Amino acid sequence: MFKEYGAYRARTTEEVLDVAYAALAGVLPPDRRIAIMTNSGGMGVQIADFAAESGLELPAVPSSAQAKILALVPNGSPNNPVDFTAQWLAEPGPIPG
User: Fold this and answer.
1) Among 4, 17, 60, 87, which has the minimal tally of Cβ within 10 Å of its Cβ?
2) Cα separations in angstroms, 88 against 29, 56, 76
3) Which residues of 13-45 are buried (b: 16+ CB within 10 A; e: fewer)?
4) With contact defined as beta carbons under 8 Å apart, do 19 and 28 qualify?
5) Residue 87 CB neighbour total at 10 angstroms
6) pLDDT digits over 11-53, tens only?
7) Taking Cα atoms as reference points, which of 25, 47, 26 lies closest to residue 36?
8) How far apart are alpha carbons 84 and 97 in whole angstroms?
9) Are 70 and 62 a contacting pair, CB within 8 Å?
10) Is 65 in contact with 82 (CB distance < 8 Å)?
């Protein structure tokens, strides 16, 4: 799915910073729109603030996707930045489609 939609998944904190610097340099993303998904609301807000200050846009999450997120993580936030909380660690497994 990431490949289909041109998403890039940063796997470490250091890589998140590398991606942020690439965005500042105009390398990523090509259309200036990003979605932030994290298991830490605080980190998501920090990334969102940095993105906004850098001229990146955080588009709204479609309502159908928000409903699916809340079905998976009722205590999370389905808005962009999406906060899955650490709850997903308690129930690992494939994400239902």
Assistant:
1) 4
2) 27, 28, 10
3) eeebeebbeebeeeebbeeeebebbbbeeeebe
4) yes
5) 13
6) 888 888 888 788 778 777 778 888 888 888 888 999 899 888 8
7) 47
8) 16
9) no
10) no
- Which residues, listed in sequence order, are joined to residue 57 by a DSSP beta bridge? 33
- Tokens in use for 80? 């962009």
Give the list of residues 6+ apart from residue 19 with CB closer than 8 angstroms, or none. 8, 10, 28
Quick one: pLDDT at residue 88?
66
End-to-end CA distance of the chain: 11
What single letter denotes the amino acid at residue 70? L
Residue type, 90: A
Query: Could you write out the DSSP letters of every residue in 22-53?
Result: HHHTT-S-TTSB---EES-HHHHHHHHHHHHH
Unique residue bearing structure tokens 């920090």: 46
Tens digits of residue pLDDT in 50-91: 888 888 899 999 999 999 889 888 888 999 999 988 876 666
